[in-house]
Design a protein that fits this description.
- The complex is a heterodimer of chains A (109) and B (114).
- In chain A, 0% of the residues lie in helices and 61% in strands.
- With 109 residues, chain A is mainly beta.
- In chain A, β6 and β7 form a beta hairpin.
- Chain A is globular, with a radius of gyration of 13 Å.
- With 114 residues, chain B is mostly beta strands.
- In chain B, strands 2, 4, 5, 6, 9, 10 and 11 form a seven-stranded mixed β-sheet that branches.
- Chain B starts with a strand and ends with a strand.
- Classes of the chains: A mainly beta (109), B mainly beta (114).
- The interface between A and B is medium-sized, with 26 and 28 residues.
């Protein structure tokens, strides 16, 4: 079987830093991706980790530990426009890309 | 704009009916993925095609079928519709298969079954 676990909701303050965790259990793991989805919109790709370590893209960073089956998305200098749902997704060797249920990020002014 | 086009954007139909959702991938992308997203739910993987062939299958109901045509556009057919099939259906494309990790999503087709 397979599973992805991420918190259903996270609240943070504008200008602060927030980390969204994702643990996964799957066969044939290849990499971990993160997507952002605003209400009523389509998911948009943020980052992808196939190797252990930290990947940085502007205010967003993503981390992967393959040995721990764990990853996180780090959002810095939070802005109100970052209020959205964030999904982790595992890429598998059989080409499936399986998404978690998503984390709704609430940002307070 | 992701470059992925989905039609129709909205569709309202009755139980027992059949609908077809269409997806045109980004230029150059060979792989098409279909996902179902119900209210407050994640993205449920349905099926994936690569260059015209079915590559991976998720929890797709037997009432649902899909195909990818030689011009790489894809169609998702939903038949004998039930109320629970009401959802947002997304198509996404990628250059290769899932190992690239990066999918480009269309704006989705919102299906309402009454």
């Amino acid at each position: 079987g397979q599973s992805l676990e991420q918190p259903s909701e996270v609240t943070a303050v504008e200008g602060a830093i927030v980390q969204i965790n994702c643990t996964y259990q799957t066969s044939g793991f290849y990499g971990l991706s993160w997507y952002q989805q605003h209400d009523g919109g389509a998911p948009t790709f943020l980052s992808y980790n196939a190797l252990d370590g930290l990947e940085e893209t502007g205010r967003f960073s993503s981390f992967l530990s393959r040995s721990d089956s764990y990853g996180y998305l780090l959002l810095q200098e939070l802005q109100m426009k970052d209020s959205a749902s964030y999904f982790c997704a595992v890429s598998r060797r059989d080409d499936k890309i399986i998404f978690g249920k998503g984390t709704r990020l609430h940002i307070l002014p | 704009d992701s470059g992925v086009t989905q039609t129709p954007k909205h569709l309202i139909t009755a139980t027992g009916q059949r609908v077809t959702l269409r997806c045109s991938p980004r230029s150059g992308d060979l792989s098409v993925y279909w996902y179902q997203q119900s209210l407050d739910q994640g993205l449920q993987f349905l099926i994936q095609y690569y260059n015209g062939e079915e590559r991976a299958k998720g929890n797709i109901l037997e009432r649902f079928s899909a195909q990818q045509f030689p011009d790489l556009h894809s169609e998702l057919n939903l038949s004998s519709l039930e109320l629970g099939d009401s959802a947002l259906y997304f198509c996404a494309s990628s250059v290769g298969g899932g190992r690239t990790g990066e999918l480009f999503f269309g704006e989705g087709s919102r299906l309402t079954v009454l």
